Amino acid sequence: MIEAVLKEWDGEGVIIRYDHLSGAWIFIAIHSSLLGPPTGGTRMKTYSSPEAALQDALKLAAGMTYKYAAANFARGGGKAVIALPANFDPTQRRDLLLRYGALIRQLNGSFYTGPDVGTSSEDMDVIGETGAPYIFSRTPAKGGAGSSGPATALGVFSAMQAVGEKCFGSDSLSGRKILVQGAGGVGGTLIEMLVEDGAEVSFSDLDQNAIRRFRDEMGLHFVEPDQIFDTECDIFSPCAMGGILNEQTVKRLKCKAIVGAANNQLATERDAQRLKEYGIMYAPDFVISIGGAMAITGMEALGWSSEQAEAEVRRVKTTLLKILELAESRDITTEAAARRLAQARLAAAAI
Ligand code: NAD
């Protein structure tokens, strides 16, 4: 099974380690070093099988290559997955992270990492104890730039401005009905920015703390998670998990555009075509969720100030406008247009 998964993949290589002490599998997928050092988050969760974890790492690593290429940012694509056993003992977490850090250090700069689903800046502090200097996004107390969520949210917000300009004739989001799925690190900050800009925001989440904060304290309209695809809005913003745009869900959508941070939102490439046929403008996730990775890498590795990082992240708007125009002029999906742009940059770097 693992052989079949790897044969299908077009990346450079995978480091696989079984951590005997915890029972966790570690997969570090290096997709491409063409544009720069492979860099991507570390996802830590329980999977149905080690193969499913490997598949996730491979897909996410390839996504990172395209993400950096579309943004013209000099990093390569990589991603790590720590697949925890179902009976993982949480008291083992710190030791597991320290062993993982030592593995990153052994790779000697072939892979740089930061937080992803299931890991935080605090975890990066721990991993950094053994993995420095290859760890991004540690807490400010440990000399890092902190969480990537707010910068990712700014990138998504800038993308919404581009969509506003193309779809509604103005980049102001004031009065726009925007539905955010997932009010976590990215979605929560995005909601605050949208409210500040005068948008009419509604949201959905499974977490009681998020519901309390945004529904009860901020007074926003809460949408039950199973109603999300049937709720009318101008812009739907998936900020929870991937694979949600598929044959079953796309036909239920009642929005004019989709602009969100979740990685790999389209279940298949065919779903991009479906969205086009339904007249829904789709902002490719790998183009618009670059903000956090770009800002943190820029500030920690390239010496950017926070103002410079913010200005760079706001460039997502220009990049997306270019992609929307390319898609329109060639009559192709926005996903295909974004891939063309990224592939052209990768091809130029390969010469
Ligand atoms: P997070 O874990 O902080 O937040 C996700 C939120 O979604 C949580 O509040 C969770 O309760 C909620 N959620 C989960 N399932 C849901 C469902 N079915 N319906 C409604 N809500 C649901 O994660 P995050 O850091 O905010 O990232 C969100 C997404 O954006 C993820 O897919 C992540 O891979 C992607 N992303 C994040 C970053 C970043 O900088 N954090 C960068 C790029 C992409």
Q: Approximately what portion of the residues adopt beta-strand conformation? A: 15-25%
Note the gap between the termini.
Answer: 34 Å
Residue runs with pLDDT of under 50 for 5 or more positions: none
For the secondary structure, the number of strands is 11
Largest sheet: 6 strands, parallel
Q: Count the DSSP helices.
A: 14
Ligands in the model, by name, code or SMILES, are: nicotinamide-adenine-dinucleotide
Indicate the overall shape. globular
Helical coverage, percent range: 40-55%
In what order do the strands lie side by side in the largest sheet?
8-7-6-9-10-11
Q: In sequence order, what are the helices and strands, one letter per element?
A: HEEEHEHEHHEHEHEEHEHEHHHHH
Radius of gyration: 20 Å
The pLDDT mean sits at 97
Structural class by sheet pairing and helices: alpha/beta
Compact description:
It contains 14 helices and eleven strands.
What would your notes on this structure say?
The protein has 351 residues and is of the alpha/beta class. It has helices at 2-7, 50-71, 93-106, 121-131, 149-168, 185-196, 208-217, 247-250, 270-277, 285-288, 291-301, 306-314, 316-330, 334-350, and strands at residues 13-19, 24-32, 38-45, 76-83, 112-115, 177-181, 200-204, 221-222, 235-238, 257-258, 281-282. It has 14 helices and eleven strands. Strands 8-7-6-9-10-11 form a six-stranded parallel sheet, with helices on both faces. The chain has a five-stranded mixed sheet with strand order 1-2-4-3-5, with helices on both faces. Strand 7 (200-204), helix 7 and strand 8 (221-222) form a beta-alpha-beta unit. Helix 5 (149-168) crosses helix 11 (291-301) and helix 13 (316-330) crosses helix 14. The protein starts with a helix and ends with a helix. 52% of the residues are buried. The site of nicotinamide-adenine-dinucleotide has 26 residues, from helix 5 and helix 6.
